[in-house]
Structure formats: structure tokens, C-alpha cells
Design brief:
Length: 213
């Protein structure tokens, strides 16, 4: 009478599956599949696990798992072929507990302070050497208007100086600015610039078209 391993191997080969494909589909390691097909029960974990392997393997191949398990029970005798307990079952990985000692706590605090200090320095460096932030809220670009003046507003860094069409304007302590400018008939280019203390410049332009009624 054929063994479970022979039945599984014959069906696998009949359907042209490799052990690698079976391993990927069933999540059973290749070496365990090989031991199962060769009826090498001493290389397999306890019977409960083996029966699970047989169910998954047989189900994937389209076999009746109840018949496979019946064959397995008839052919297998724990007295003759005691299963080998795999290292992964007999010696599970020790769970290392992480203990926070006073020395480790102080070290973490020091490292955190050093990290915060360097982050602060990086932001200061960017602030001093980089171009200032500049946002123009209004007017929007390519805006069509019928009035001869328009309100320009936005915000920048609190230390930056703002100019509109080369005319410096006042900004608030929070960096916000608002200025009304006159328009000429036709196309108008509004140039807004922000200059940082280090001389870096950010510039935004808006094109506004005035059409008189």
C-alpha cells in the first residue's frame, strides 16, 4: 500500500509542481516537504504538526485530506518512529527583557539633548543662510480687474524686508504685510521680494490685467 509521502509526491509530479512552488504556496519549508514525501517522520515535528502539513499539502494538490490522514494513521506508529523535536520547537528563542537602568536613562536623556541641540543649530543655519520664506496671498496670478488699484498681501519671515516693485513696505511683527498699489491700463507685473538679514532673496511675481470700463 502506498504511503502518504508517495501519494503526495506522485500527485505533485503528475501536476508538474516543484517543491519550491509547494513551499511558497503552503508556507511549509522545503526540507519538511522532502521529509514528508520520503516518510522520514524522525525528521518531522510532532504528529499534530505533521497532520497539519498533510492537510495543507493535500488540499493544495486537490486530494481528499481525510483519506490522506487515514493512511497516515495506519502507517505511522509513535513507538517505531518517534518524531524528532526540531530545535525551533524544543529551544524557542529566549525573550530578552529590556530593563531601563538609571545609567541607561541618563544616557537616553543626554542623547536626546544632543539631538535637540543639533536640530536647533540646523534650523538656525537654514534661517541665517537660506532664502526667506515668502507667500503672496493676493492677488492671484493672471487676475483680471476693472479697478485702478489692488491690494497686495502675504507673509514672510519676521526679520525679512519686503519690497513691492522695488518699493520697501512695512511688515508686521509676525511677518504679514498688506499694501495697496495702483495699476495702469493693460498688463501689470507686480514683483514682491523678501530679503533676509544675510542678503538672501525670495521673489514672487503676479501678473494683473486692468481693463477699464
Amino acid at each position: 500500500m502506498r504511503t502518504v509521502g508517495q501519494v503526495l509526491k506522485e500527485e505533485r509530479e503528475k501536476k508538474f509542481y516543484t517543491l519550491e512552488e509547494i513551499e511558497k504556496a503552503t508556507k511549509i519549508r522545503k526540507e519538511l516537504l522532502e521529509a514528508l514525501e520520503k516518510d522520514q517522520y524522525s525528521k518531522l515535528p510532532p504528529p499534530t504538526f505533521v497532520q497539519g502539513f498533510i492537510k495543507n499539502y493535500g488540499r493544495f494538490l486537490g486530494l481528499e485530506t481525510t483519506k490522506l490522514l487515514a493512511i497516515y494513521r495506519r502507517e505511522f506508529s509513535e513507538g517505531k518512529n518517534p518524531p524528532r523535536i526540531l530545535e525551533t520547537f524544543s529551544n524557542p528563542m529566549d525573550k530578552k527583557k529590556i530593563t531601563l537602568t538609571p545609567a541607561k536613562f541618563v544616557g537616553l536623556v543626554v542623547l536626546s539633548m544632543v539631538a535637540i541641540f543639533f536640530i536647533y543649530l540646523w534650523f538656525e543655519y537654514r534661517f541665517l543662510t537660506g532664502a526667506p520664506f515668502l507667500e503672496v496671498i493676493q492677488p492671484t496670478n493672471q487676475l483680471n480687474v476693472v479697478t485702478s488699484s489692488i491690494l497686495v498681501s502675504g507673509r514672510t519671515d519676521s526679520e525679512a524686508k519686503v519690497s513691492i516693485n522695488n518699493q520697501e513696505i512695512q511688515t508686521g511683527l509676525d511677518g504679514k504685510f498688506t499694501q495697496e498699489i495702483n495699476l495702469t491700463e493693460g498688463s501689470n507685473t507686480i514683483s514682491i521680494t523678501a530679503i533676509s538679514k544675510s542678503g538672501k532673496i525670495s521673489k514672487i511675481e503676479r501678473n494683473v490685467f486692468l481693463k477699464k470700463l
